[in-house]
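Pipeline run #58 for the internal structure catalog. This entry was flagged by the ingest filter as a single-chain record with no existing model, so it goes straight to prediction. Upstream metadata was stripped on purpose; only the residue string is passed forward. Reviewer on rotation: M.T. Logging verbosity set to normal.
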Amino acid sequence: MEIPRHRCLVAILSLALPLAAPAHAFAQAATLPPPAAAMPADSCPADPDAALANAAAPAGHLDRVAAALKPGGILNILAIGSGTLTGPDLDSPTDSFPYRMVEALRRAAPDTEINLTVRGRRGMPATDMIALMRVALAGRPYRLVLWQTGTVEAVLTTPPDTFARTLQEGTALVAREGADLILVDAQFSRMLTRRVNLLPYEDALQAAARQPDTVMFPRYALMRGWAQDGGIDLERAPPLQRNAIAARLHACLGEALARLVLDATK
């Protein structure tokens, strides 16, 4: 019996991506609680190779973030995305990588007030994210937006030029509201890449990242390198170790993302 296409798509999204809590479960998160324990710096794998380290180097500069990251400054961050912003593999939604990024930034800039708001849900397309973004940016002054997108479009085979136009609309909105933008691409998943062509959507993200005050965080390349080098491989984690490895993965992504932010503000 042939399985309906929409059921296959749901299966890919559910298995390839950590599930997200419902949007209302974390939409109000605006500040970080104290972490249970700091992650040792040497617990994260090194960047897999020089090429990846170069890929992670920001091509742009985050001027607005740089102005906020100073003694007495206030840096409000808005994170918009689908299922990989949070998930049941973590003990708490606040263990996800945007929160771990903020922890790292707070350590680097202890005299700056840094706040985080998260919006999104599993399976959310970029067009719906823009609606959330518009409401959030109108209600509070943000200086940095993290926008994780593209995976849902790839799974649903949204025309890449349509996705590119949506990215243009979103980047223009963020710029008008006086914020810098970091685009976050797909997470690495062998099953996902066997079934979905991510390349056109990655190309669209890379093109959008060439806009002023916009930077790309190469999450896919980082995770692929860590998995291939045996550092962190969530997809092949033993079931009893999955929660711990997921927490380590998000902590290391957060550290890497914080380094990119700091590098882009020098």
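catalog note: The first strand starts at residue 74 and ends at 81.
catalog note: The mean pLDDT is 82.
status: ready for reviewer M.T.
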